[in-house]
Amino acid sequence: MRTAVLYVLAVFFSVFSPAQDSTVGGSTPTTDMDGMGGMSQSKMGMESHSLSETITQHTASGTDAEPSSTPSEMVMFKKGGWMFMFHGEAFLNELQQTGLRGADKVFSTNWFMPMAQRKIGASGTLTLRTMLSLEPATVTSERYPELFQQGETAFGRPIVDGQHPHNFFMEVAAIYDYRVSERTLLSVYAAPVGDPALGPPAYPHRASAPEDPMAPLGHHLQDSTHIADDVITLGITHGMFRVEASGFHGQEPDEYRWDIDTGRIDSWSARLTANPGQNWSFQYSISDLASPEALFPHENIRRMTASLIYNRPIHEGNWNSMVLWGRNQSLQDGNVGNAYLLESTLRFLNKNNVWTRIENVDRTNELLTGETLLSPSFTERYFTRVQAYTAGYDRDIGRLPHLLTAVGAQLTWYGVPAVLQPVYGSHPLGVLAFLRLRAK
């Protein structure tokens, strides 16, 4: 498996060099590759005209789907029989929080996705893709502040009121798509580290929240498996429907963020996706996760998610929105937690973005312990619910080749239940200002 990882990385980094025919976003060349025929000359990057085209473009992580009308920023060029694509972004953030547990920090969230694609025979398409992040270096102390956030560990202790960085290797994957007929597509996805068929597109890659650099509070009830080990996914797409099943290692990444973890395939997921038109995408997924949290190795989780995404291209812009529900149930004691999310981003006049994210999320009693070593007798349970409301604005500035640069800010305020007010205060706030760079 590790030999395959090194081979894929060697391919990517050897081919991603400047080329005469490199292109930018709206001036993308057309190609006869399956799934590339829908590229538009007038929109931001690639668009597709059917669910199968959306799948074969593979512009999100894993095998996730979006509405077919969703634009995607990227740099593209052809070399020999290969089509090469690169997309990615980096935020430089200054965060300040109020309240009894508020904290301040300067940090960078970022990811980079090089990808290569070519035809195999008359009906097949091979995609090689990796996703990398420098967050193990740009998010110090193994976390950045985020009030009421939970999940994973730092220095052997639970992360509370903070978000962990992504691993350096977020994804290393090979995907083979075989077109059985005009309306039917078979797909195989294999990744030593990747994204199984569970949930909607992960939050760093959603068109409903591309300008928000913070993780949702519901991340570990909705899309935290977007970095999983030893993933195998089989899928079939017919018309507007797609059915997938995955096997993977269920434990979430450990604290050593620079390597690729391994483990036996001990978890499964299944997902149904429907795109009933250019602007809509619905998914329902279910999974059994074996020992996802390192601090609770004997607890298995059943996760369910459902989401609906709406995308609407507009003159000189785009509007994308999503509603999302996620649910974790302990298979040991039946304890259940739910997370609800609504997020929306409007891009207008080509350079401006406004967005919002609204969450209603169950929290566990880890919030009461803080970042302390847990006693052997501690039992984690969902016991209360928190609301978070975010609104933000940014504007593109400057004109740099292959790069969109923006400055922006967002404000987050919270609904704090009475049981947590002695710990957090009644009205904590978070203010974040940032500089954003994005490949185009």
Structure description:
The protein has 440 residues and is mainly beta. It has a single domain (2-439), classed as Porin. It is 8% helix and 51% strand. It has helices at residues 2-15, 51-57, 135-138, 219-222, 366-369, 421-424; strands at residues 23-24, 75-79, 82-97, 104-120, 124-132, 144-154, 157-163, 169-179, 184-194, 228-238, 241-249, 267-274, 280-289, 301-314, 317-330, 336-348, 352-364, 382-400, 403-415, 429-439. The strands form 2 sheets. It has a 16-stranded antiparallel beta barrel with strand order 3-4-5-8-9-10-11-12-13-14-15-16-17-18-19-20. The chain has a two-stranded antiparallel sheet with strand order 6-7. The longest helix is centred in the first third of the chain and has 14 residues, at 2-15. It is globular. The two termini are 32 Å apart. Residues 1-45 have low confidence and may be disordered.
Give the strand content: over 45%
CATH domain topology: Porin
Q: Based on DSSP secondary structure assignment, what is the total number of beta strands?
A: 20
Tell me about the biggest sheet? 16 strands, antiparallel, barrel
What multimeric state do the chains show?
Answer: single chain
* Coarse structural class: mainly beta
Overall structural domain count? 1
Number of helices, counting only DSSP H or I runs of 4 residues or more: 6
User: Which CATH C-level class is it?
Assistant: Mainly Beta
The rounded Rg comes to 21 Å
The N- to C-terminal Cα distance equals: 32 Å
Average pLDDT taken over every residue: 89
Instruction: State the fourth-level CATH superfamily.
Output: Porin
> Low-confidence segments, ≥5 residues, pLDDT <50?
1-45
CATH architecture: Beta Barrel
The geometry reads as globular
Order of helices and strands: HEHEEEEHEEEEHEEEEEEEEHEEHE
- As a percent range, the share of helical residues equals under 10%
Strand order of the largest sheet: 3-4-5-8-9-10-11-12-13-14-15-16-17-18-19-20
